[in-house]
Predict the structure.
Amino acid sequence: MPQSQVILPLPAGQHSFTFNDFTVTIETPPDFDALLDACARDTPDNVDRIPYYANLWPSAIGLAHSLCHRASAIANSTVIELGCGLGLPSIVAAQYHAANVVATDFHPDTQPWLLHNATLNQTTITFTTLDWNTPSPLNNATFDWIIGSDLLYESRHIPALANCITTLAHPATNLLIADPGRDGLAAFTAALTRHHWHCDLETFHNIYIITARR
């Protein structure tokens, strides 16, 4: 498994990315430090309220580029993104004409920024708050593609994440998870294997892309 590395987000502001024949613009909250200070003040004991969603992480960019290589398979399919944050991969999936894109996150402040970026790029995306610990998420809906990036920063969430992914999958579901090489990567692939997923590893620059089928 890859070694852990220093992971830094892109600076705040607007960032544009070109994918084949279209460009996606993502806007971030202007002051991450202010959000972090508010979190420390209002919910100091709740690490799940840390505003990770407000940063644009390299793994999201890697996942978005990975989707480019699967554009024809994404078209007319159903896609769910876990831990969507600012929504770059979901927007790319929508640009590739996915039939339905559902972006999910647990942080309560994610939704307005996800929808803002979807509107900025003239895409239609549904946002749903999702707790990975929910036994039957999204009323037992399943998806053709399950995607996500930088989901493994809290190792304690890995069992729930693997279980949630499996619950959202049907027998032909494709899984794409991007990660910068965090310590939980090996534990995550092992958890997927226990759920009868067959995993492979790709790379995009310094980002690792877990691809899996059942």
